[in-house]
Amino acid sequence: MCKKFMLLVLLSYTLGAQAAPNDVTATTQDDELTSEVLKFASSPKLRSSIALIYDEQGQSSLYTKNADTVAPIASITKLMTAMVVLDAQLPLEEEISISAQDMDMLKGTRSRMRPGMKLTRGELLRLALMSSENRAAAALARTYPGGTMAAVAMMNDKARELGMKDTRFLDPTGLNSGNVSTAQDLVKMVQAAQCYDLIHEFTTTSSHTVGLGGRHPMRFNNTNPLVKNASWDIGISKTGYISEAGRCLVMQAKINQRPVVIVLLDSWGLRTRVGDANRIKKWMESAYARARGTRRS
Question: Which residues are marked as active site?
Answer without folding.
Answer: 75, 78, 132
